[in-house]
Every structure is written in structure tokens, then in C-alpha cells.
Specification:
6 helices; Rna Polymerase Sigma Factor, Chain: A; 2 domains; 175 residues; 3-stranded antiparallel sheet; alpha+beta; 5 strands
Length: 175
């Protein structure tokens, strides 16, 4: 982050310190996306992350006098967002929401979003954590006997191959 951006954040925090509403608006314009990114990185749910950002703004306004002028305001704001997100995660018990689906080959197969699962074991159901269209791709690939796609995991700049292509003709012929 360049010096000019840091100065703008400091200016926004100074406005908040003086009780001026424009400071909150300015901080939102400058850091709203970053705050959402930090929150979503912890809670891994867009709607919960938005709630965390709103709660963080309240904490920033109420706790503004805990921030020293001239300190790293960017880091201070990010720390508040991260801690708020961690607290939110602890309150929710750290339970994850899952997407459950069948193979999408019959009319009986359904997609269910955010169905909480307890005690799911391998082989019980097909479960993907926050899968979105990925589960649909799997089902269509199986139905059409097309190879299942490669699955990668990205952490920062590191890309790890979790699964290579799978020929679905072999899966579909198993009894």
C-alpha cells in the first residue's frame, strides 16, 4: 500500500475521531473491499462476511480513541475485522454450511444449499464444501460419461493438484 493511500486512511480515521460521518463513508470507500476480503477469508461466507464488516464499522467508530493518530490505521482496521470475524466464527460454533447434491441424473436428485450436516461420513452422501457450480459439473460429467475435471486448491500463489482427470466411463460401469 502506498503512502498516499495510508494518508487517506489516516485522514478518514481522523474524521471519525472528530465525530464526522464523512470519515465512515471515506473509510468505506477506501477499505470496504479489503475489509470484506479479510472477513470472508475467516468466515468463508459472503453474507456472514458482510455482517462482520458492518459490525466492524460499529467497533471502529466506538473504539476510535483506541487508535493513535499516525499509527498504521490500515493494520488497525484489518485487525478489528479479523477479530470480529473470529468472534463471529466462535459464536456460530465454527459450523460449516454445506451443499449436498445427488449425481443429477434423475428427477429425484436435488441441490440443497446451506444444509447443516452432523456426523456425515465418507460414503453417506456426496458432500462439497461451498461447491457452487462444481457439484453440477460433476453430475453432468457423470451423466454424459465425460471425464471429471481436474481439481485444484489455491492458497495464495500456490496451486496444488488435488485430483487429476477421472474417466467417468470407468465409474459408470462399476456395479
Amino acid at each position: 500500500m502506498d503512502l498516499q493511500a495510508r494518508e487517506k486512511i489516516e485522514y478518514a480515521l481522523e474524521q471519525i475521531r472528530k465525530g464526522q460521518d464523512e470519515g465512515v463513508e471515506t473509510l468505506y470507500v477506501l477499505m470496504g473491499r479489503t475489509m470484506l476480503f479479510v472477513a470472508n477469508g475467516v468466515v468463508r461466507d459472503r453474507h456472514a462476511a458482510e455482517d462482520v464488516v458492518q459490525e466492524s464499522f460499529v467497533k471502529i467508530v466506538k473504539g476510535i480513541h483506541g487508535n493513535r493518530a499516525g499509527s498504521n490505521g490500515y493494520a488497525w482496521v484489518c485487525r478489528i475485522v479479523r477479530n470480529t470475524a473470529l468472534n463471529d466464527l466462535r459464536k456460530s460454533g465454527g459450523a460449516e454450511e454445506w451443499t449436498v447434491c445427488g449425481s443429477l441424473c434423475t428427477t429425484a436428485d436435488v441441490l440443497v444449499k446451506n444444509l447443516p450436516l452432523t456426523g456425515a461420513k465418507e460414503g453417506d452422501v456426496l458432500v462439497f464444501s461451498k461447491a457452487g457450480a462444481y457439484s453440477v459439473t460433476e453430475g453432468i460429467s457423470l451423466f454424459l460419461s465425460r471425464p471429471l475435471p481436474r481439481v485444484y486448491q489455491r492458497e495464495g500463489e500456490t496451486l496444488t493438484l488435488l485430483r487429476d482427470f477421472i474417466k467417468t466411463s470407468q465409474i459408470n460401469q462399476k456395479e
